[in-house]
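hey
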């Protein structure tokens, strides 16, 4: 049987982990938005708002996450909240910086949706393993689970269903289906690889 030794990440390890994870997610989001697709959770809400308003994703994502930090502090503590704030800020900055630097002349939408899911899932795993998150609905879901008794998974699923329902009125049906595929791939990557019993350093 494989064994794993628990140890704390150093500040330098955390810094490079959050930088790498958010850079991967920002690149994947450039791919997603170049195809006119959406995704789930808070990032998906920010993408949808940016489509409808013309505002930049980075600015919208940063603002949308602001109400959730108090809940994150109450539920997960100061260290998690600071890392989450840093991750959200980095993703917002990277998204703004990459905008004029990354273009896709040829990108099949089906492949793009799958690759978005794989890259985003990998980026999120790195962020999670260094004690952060990309904030938003996940924090709210955990808070409601603790205080109201509603399962966190149901809260997140309900939010995503509402988000994609709205997207169905904004995007062509084919793009909604492709968006769903990307979101499913993200969740599969996390579900199959995020195991605290296999990787417990923080």
């Amino acid at each position: 049987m494989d064994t794993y030794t628990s140890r704390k990440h150093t500040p330098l390890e955390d810094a490079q982990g959050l930088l790498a994870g958010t850079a991967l997610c920002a690149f994947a989001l450039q791919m997603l938005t170049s195809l006119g697709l959406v995704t789930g959770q808070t990032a998906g809400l920010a993408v949808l708002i940016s489509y409808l308003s013309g505002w930049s994703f980075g600015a919208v994502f940063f603002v949308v996450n602001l109400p959730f930090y108090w809940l994150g502090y109450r539920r997960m503590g100061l260290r998690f909240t600071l890392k989450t704030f840093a991750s959200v800020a980095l993703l917002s900055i990277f998204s703004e910086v990459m905008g004029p630097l990354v273009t896709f002349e040829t990108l099949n939408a089906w492949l793009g949706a799958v690759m978005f899911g794989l890259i985003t899932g990998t980026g999120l795993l790195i962020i999670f393993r260094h004690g952060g998150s990309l904030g938003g609905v996940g924090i709210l879901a955990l808070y409601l689970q603790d205080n109201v008794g509603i399962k966190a998974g149901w809260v997140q699923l309900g939010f995503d269903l509402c988000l994609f329902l709205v997207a169905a009125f904004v995007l062509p049906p084919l793009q909604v289906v492709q968006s769903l595929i990307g979101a499913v791939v993200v969740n599969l990557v996390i579900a199959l690889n995020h195991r605290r019993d296999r990787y417990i350093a923080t």
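Confidence is low (pLDDT under 50) at residues 1-6. The chain has one domain: 11-193.
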